[in-house]
Design goal:
This protein is mainly alpha-helical. The chain is built from 17 helices and no strands. Helix 3 runs parallel beside helix 5.
Length: 417
């Protein structure tokens, strides 16, 4: 059994390779903005609740836009849609840079400006990201889907490692404005990756005259009828809502390590390193027969790792526990991605990927708010500990209540050359 991720999709498909490289560059820049924005809000307010408020600014437009955006992706040329959204996102990143260049903005007005820009960024991403994910099954052969999803996860892990690590150095040297500027420039990678793709016209549907609301309802109805999709989404929401305490990182860093921005950068980077390790060694995922059960096991490991992080007395154990969480998360996401792309027919792919995006990103934003609120009412450590333990309990409950998901067996992959 091969341990290393199969890189055949990169070798055989130039369009997939360009998309992969361009997305990696752009997402590293986006991760630097996320780091800078979190730190800027905390420095302005010294409040974990204010940092958690970024989750609300991200989540509300995401919930309002993502599902209708999925209907757009099932109605128009997906390539042109992503290019238009990338142009809009570039403008928002330039505005982040402009506000940082103008001054610290420590008053309430400055905080609300940051929330507004984050909301705009979230709304644009809620349309772009699901549509971009639909490209992958079109660019590789069916038997290469698991490998392509694992390679896609390597992009995400690179973002987690390189983005915060670089951002910590840049902030220490020139402040948050440097991160925002780099993010703006790196959108060139996204244009490079998408611009040369072939046309991605809307799939043929039974009734092309349906309105966007009807298309959205149809997509949600399809998800409800599939216990496998519902179980995969619920497992991920449980993990990200209870067990993703990113809003607590600045406060825990301040309490344990004196607020050193370099150590703050190492925290999300440690998640990325653990995830990168399992992303590179994701070859066995192709041979996992029961994807649902494997997902639940990984969710439990993810929650347990954050429980250890909450009480870790030293830097090495703090980073090790975060690395273990990242390792479990990669397998969870790859398995969920394969389930979504395999179970979903082409005509529903934009809408189901939109729901998948809401689950993956929206759960994390709610979790950031939840962790921040609990941390303000109790302490950052108690918030992280309780969230981790609840994640483990949630995985057990999902397995018991959704036997169809727990017993789901993946279709045997086709052999690749």
């Amino acid at each position: 059994m091969k341990l290393l991720t199969d890189i055949t999709p990169l070798r055989e498909h130039p369009a997939f390779r360009r998309l992969w490289l361009g997305t990696m560059l752009s997402q590293v820049g986006g991760s630097m903005t996320t780091f800078a924005l979190t730190l800027q809000v905390y420095d302005m307010t010294r409040s974990t609740t204010a940092v958690g408020g970024l989750g609300v600014a991200t989540l509300v437009p995401m919930l309002l836009i993502a599902l209708p955006g999925g209907s757009l992706a099932d109605s128009f040329d997906r390539r042109r849609l992503v290019l238009a959204m990338t142009a809009c996102q570039t403008v928002v990143s330039a505005l982040f840079f402009a506000q940082a260049l103008a001054g610290p903005g420590r008053g309430p007005g400055g905080l609300w400006l940051l929330y507004a820009l984050e909301a705009a960024s979230s709304a644009i991403g809620a349309i772009s990201a699901p549509a971009r994910t639909t490209f992958i099954p079109k660019l590789v052969r069916p038997g290469q889907l698991a490998a392509a999803m694992a390679l896609n996860r390597i992009v995400f892990q690179t973002m987690l490692i390189a983005g915060p690590a670089l951002a910590g150095v840049v902030v220490g040297a020139v402040g948050v404005k440097g991160c925002y500027l780099i993010d703006t420039v790196t959108f060139a990678g996204s244009f490079y990756g998408v611009g040369r793709l072939p046309a991605m016209p809307a799939p043929e549907t039974r009734d092309r005259k349906q309105g966007k609301l009807a298309l959205t309802r149809e997509g949600l109805s399809f998800i409800r009828r599939s216990q496998v999709l519902a179980g995969a989404f619920l497992a991920d929401v449980t993990a990200t809502f209870f067990g993703l305490p990113l809003s607590l990182f600045p406060a825990i860093n301040a309490e344990r390590f004196g607020g050193d921005p370099r150590i703050l950068g190492l925290m999300p980077a440690a998640i990325g390193v653990g995830g990168m390790l399992t992303a590179v060694l994701s070859g066995p995922v192709r041979h996992v027969p029961r994807h649902g059960l494997a997902m639940l096991a990984c969710v439990a490991v993810w929650g347990g790792s954050f429980a250890v992080f909450a009480v870790a007395p030293s830097l090495w154990l703090t980073l090790l526990s975060l690395g273990m969480a990242g390792a479990a998360d990669t397998y969870t996401v790859v398995l969920r991605g394969v389930i979504v792309q395999t179970v979903t027919p082409e005509e529903f792919r934009g809408r189901v990927n939109a729901a998948d995006y809401v689950v993956g990103a929206g759960g994390g934003q709610l979790g950031s708010l939840e962790a921040g609120l609990v941390g303000s009412l109790t302490s950052p450590a108690i918030s992280a500990l309780s969230g981790g333990l609840l994640t483990v309990a949630g995985a057990i409950a999902i397995g018991a209540s959704l036997p169809g998901f727990r017993r789901y067996r993946a279709a045997r992959p086709q052999a690749t050359s």
